[in-house]
Amino acid sequence: MTTLALPADRCALVVEMAAIRANWRAVRQSFAGAGVGAVVKQDAYGLGIAEVVPLLAALGCRDFWVADLQEAADVRRAEPSGRIFVLHGLVGGTLRDYQALGAIPVLVDMSEVEALARLAGDAPAACAIHLDTGLNRLGLGLAEVRRLAAEPGLLGRLQVAAYVTHLAHFSDPGARANLWQWRRFSAWTRHLPPAPLSFSASSGVFGPKERHGDLARVGSALYGVETTPSRPQPIVAAATLTAPILRVHRVPAGREVGYSGAYRTRSARRLAQLGIGYGDGVPYRFHGDAHVLIDGHRAPVVSTSAMSLMSVDVTDLPEEALRPGLRAVLFGPGLPVDQIAAAAGVAPNVVHVRAGRSAPRFYLPCPDEPGAGTATAPRPHHAPQMA
Ligand SMILES: *Cc1c(COP(=O)(O)O)cnc(C)c1O
């Protein structure tokens, strides 16, 4: 599937930059509001801020959303202009730290609104304000919004770049709760000084246009991770995780495979040992059926994974599918990350982010449009430092 030289004894996460570009365009086309921002927290969901941010900036992305100030610094290094919104609020540093990076804190409660108003000098301080319309995690509730409306002096010292709220039931596009959160959000913000509304994440930009708001915050969809399985999005997987087959061997019936007898062969099986394990971000334990693809054939995962190994059952695979040098695909186009995640009882992004942050990464640049900010091929992201 790739022309990259991947390590023969290690797993590899291959990032297809053209897929991220296609997803960006699909999101842009669907979103009715003024601007699509990219959520790049957790090193761009494991795909690499240093590589993903320049690509998105070249495609016209102006807003980047991160969790914390360290990530804001990583984005700023990759993209000298553009706005950076910091979702964890104001606690990451001094106001000067935020201003030096051109980072905009998304204030998480009333005490942060008051603190920033106090800190603001002659010029109003830039911020966004998180409103809690139903998730009960971050943001001001109705009582605090009323206070803000009654004390215009507070917001007078702030320059509000956006009001932000986040859906509790994003994965269920038909949930009534989504409609209620939108109604609260639009009603509350009508009492506040005007500023763009940031409502839609990945699920929202493909949802009803009358609820898109002005500024989207899109993560998963850009990387090809589906957030609304009941209403599939027009996106493609950007990351492919593969592992080398280290050994194929026959195991008689009644043998234990792996630690503590986690799996026992009921009949004679043929197993393949893959060079990937939980240390590379794959789940440790599988509750349901999971499989990998070898030359297009499904091979069920057996047992738990170990730190750098996992076993799959290749008994039913044709001989030619097991030729030396072939790699097993754990997720990628044609095998959504949802599959392995569901078998482990976790959200798809749990596997995507962990694998992206743990496995060595390689980049396939966009084939056309040279200079679109893509990396040159193969570039392991934690290669040893070379002088
Ligand atoms: C992570 C996050 C997003 C991105 O959500 P996706 O479903 O991945 O697009 C948007 N907004 C907030 C507040 C987030 O924490």
Structure description:
It is a single chain. With 387 residues, the chain is α/β, with parallel strands linked by helices. The protein folds into two domains: 31-223, TIM Barrel; 239-364, Beta Barrel (Lyase, Ornithine Decarboxylase, Chain A, domain 1), CATH 2.40.37.10. The protein has 13 helices and 18 strands. The strands form three sheets. Strands 8-7-6-5-4-3-2-9 form an eight-stranded parallel beta sheet. Helix 3 (49-58) crosses helix 4. The longest helix has 15 residues, at 176-190. It starts with 11 loop residues before the first strand and ends in a 23-residue tail after the last strand. Mean pLDDT is 93; it is low at 371-387. Bound molecules: pyridoxal-5'-phosphate.
Q: So, CATH architecture of the largest domain?
A: Alpha-Beta Barrel
What is the CATH topology descriptor of the largest domain?
Answer: TIM Barrel
Number of domains: 2
Mean pLDDT: 93
Radius of gyration: 23 Å
What is the CATH domain class of the largest domain?
A: Alpha Beta
The assembly state of the depicted protein chains is single chain
The hetero molecules present are: pyridoxal-5'-phosphate
Write down how many β-strands occur, each being a DSSP E stretch of 2 or more residues.
18
Shape: elongated
Low-confidence stretches: 371-387
What is the fourth-level CATH superfamily of the largest domain?
Alanine racemase
Distance between the termini: 32 Å
Structural class, judged by helices and strands?
Answer: alpha/beta
- Structure annotation, total helices: 13
